[in-house]
Amino acid sequence: MFLPSRQPSSADILPRSARNRAARALAAVGLGLAAACFVGCDSKSTDAVEGKELTHSFPAPLIEEAGDEPVGVSEVPPAAAPASPVAEAPVAEAPAAETPAAPANDAAVAASGPPAPAAEPSTWAPETLDTGMSLSGLKIAKPLTPPPPTGSKGILATAPGAEKAELGVLIQGEVVEHTFRLTNTGEEAVVLNGTANSCGCTVAQTQRVGVDGTTTPFVFGQPIAPGESIDILAKVDTDGKKGKLVSTITLQTNAANLPAPLQLAADVQPFLVLEPESYLMLGSMMATEQKEADLNLRSTSGEVFGLELARLGLPDYVNAALTPVDPNPEGRSAHWKAKVTVGPNAAEGQNQSWQLRFVTDVPAPSKAHAAGVEAQPRNHSVVSFVVVQEVTGLVRVSPAFVSFGLVRPGQTVSRTVRLENTDPEFQLPADLVLTRVPMNSAAGAILESCFTTSVEVLDAGRVVEITMTLADLPDTFEGNLGGSLEVQVGHPSKPVLSVPYSAFCRPTVQAPKPPAGLR
Question: 3-state SS of the chain: helix, strand, coil percent to 5?
Answer without folding.
Answer: 10, 40, 50
